[in-house]
């Protein structure tokens, strides 16, 4: 009898927990952070997964967006999307489409260079240097596919991390028309390529090339890595920065740094932030909304600022529609001018905003406010 009673209690408790779990499952909803599709590549001879994260108001707009290609996407896709979302929402960079390339075929080292140290010992990449194939994949298969699916423009950044920085460097010094922003994480500079030159020497040569297209490049390394590298690695970072003091190219923005108190892959958060800051520096991305608000014609001033920014970068950049608790946006400006009693100017900014975001319900609701 005691055994039966105990079993009844256990079954009753299990049933209660099961019902509670079922109710929890009913109340749960998945949070989407992006899309995924498979692209069959004739060049790579395999199917590659592609991750996509679109700006939150992509469906409200009609303009095109720059893209950020992220290698090692299973590790870097979400953090890159989050950093870009926050920076763009604060007018520190344009809203962008994030394109992730995960290693679903387990071939990370295919992207590695054949690199050796000063003693001729292979570091990694022996027999697996297919970085050029990935550039061909981008140019002939990935980008045309993206163009057919999304509104992308010529603004293209690539992020690679040891060892997937192979295509990043390969593009910077051999196919510089493919990307205009380069971010290298967990980098190596003192290692020698198959040409006999070190990575640092090849980077310096490309930066000094007066025919190199306008670009920005960031190279970062964790200080913890230097504890396991020969002295020549730290020396390579110092010398590269020193040489560019006198031999810099005004067409190329750059930053090369060793990040303190970070480890090999842990530096990626700071590295991505600093890399995007290199491509979109504050000196260009101070958006003077207070000056816009106080100007005689705010709509004209906003458009002129972003037209000039677009001309500088060579691709379309537009003001953001709205943001998280920030007035420095189109919708925030409409409301601000309304509170100032400047109804005419408020309407003009609203009309400008609707040209950029014609499908925005929020902007359409502001039509009554601007009357």
UniProtKB/TrEMBL annotation:
Species this chain originates from: Maribacter dokdonensis
Signal sequence, renumbered to the chain: none
Membrane spanning stretches: none
Gene3D superfamilies per the UniProt record, alphabetical: alpha/beta hydrolase
InterPro entries: AB_hydrolase_fold, Esterase-like, Mycobacterial_A85_antigen
Pfam families: Esterase
Protein name, per record: Esterase
Top-level taxon of the source organism: Bacteria
PANTHER family linked: ENTEROCHELIN ESTERASE-RELATED, IRON(III) ENTEROBACTIN ESTERASE
């Amino acid at each position: 009898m005691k055994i039966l009673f105990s079993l009844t209690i256990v079954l009753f408790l299990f049933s209660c927990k099961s019902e509670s779990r079922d109710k929890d499952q009913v109340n749960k909803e998945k949070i989407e952070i992006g899309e995924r599709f498979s692209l069959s590549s004739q060049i790579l001879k395999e199917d590659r997964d592609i991750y996509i994260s679109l700006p939150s108001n992509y469906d409200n707009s009609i303009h095109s967006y720059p893209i950020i290609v992220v290698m090692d996407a299973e590790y870097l896709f979400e953090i890159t999307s989050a950093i870009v979302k926050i920076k763009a929402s604060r007018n520190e960079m344009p809203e962008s489409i994030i394109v992730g390339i995960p290693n679903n075929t387990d071939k990370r080292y295919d992207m590695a260079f054949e690199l050796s140290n000063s003693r001729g010992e292979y570091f990694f990449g022996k027999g697996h240097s297919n970085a050029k194939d990935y550039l061909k994949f981008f140019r002939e298969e990935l980008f045309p596919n993206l163009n057919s699916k999304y509104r992308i423009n010529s603004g293209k950044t690539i992020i690679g991390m040891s060892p997937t920085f192979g295509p990043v460097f390969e593009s910077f010094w051999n196919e510089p028309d493919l990307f205009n922003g380069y971010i290298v994480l967990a980098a190596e500079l003192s290692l020698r390529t198959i040409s006999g030159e070190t990575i640092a020497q090849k980077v310096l040569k490309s930066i000094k090339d007066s025919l190199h297209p306008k670009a920005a490049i960031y190279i970062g390394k964790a200080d913890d890595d230097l504890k396991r590298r020969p002295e020549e690695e730290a020396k390579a970072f110092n010398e590269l920065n020193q040489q560019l003091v006198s031999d810099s190219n005004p067409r190329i923005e750059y930053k090369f740094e060793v990040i303190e108190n970070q480890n090999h892959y842990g530096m990626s958060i700071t590295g991505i932030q600093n890399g995007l800051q290199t491509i979109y520096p504050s000196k260009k991305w101070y958006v003077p909304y207070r000056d816009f608000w106080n100007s005689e014609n705010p709509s004209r001033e906003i458009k002129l600022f972003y037209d000039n920014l677009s001309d500088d970068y060579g691709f379309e950049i537009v003001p953001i529609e709205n943001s998280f608790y920030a007035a420095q946006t189109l919708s925030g400006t409409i409301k601000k001018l309304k509170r100032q009693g400047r109804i005419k100017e408020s309407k003009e900014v609203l009309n400008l905003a609707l040209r950029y975001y014609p499908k925005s319900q929020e902007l359409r609701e502001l039509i009554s406010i601007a009357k």
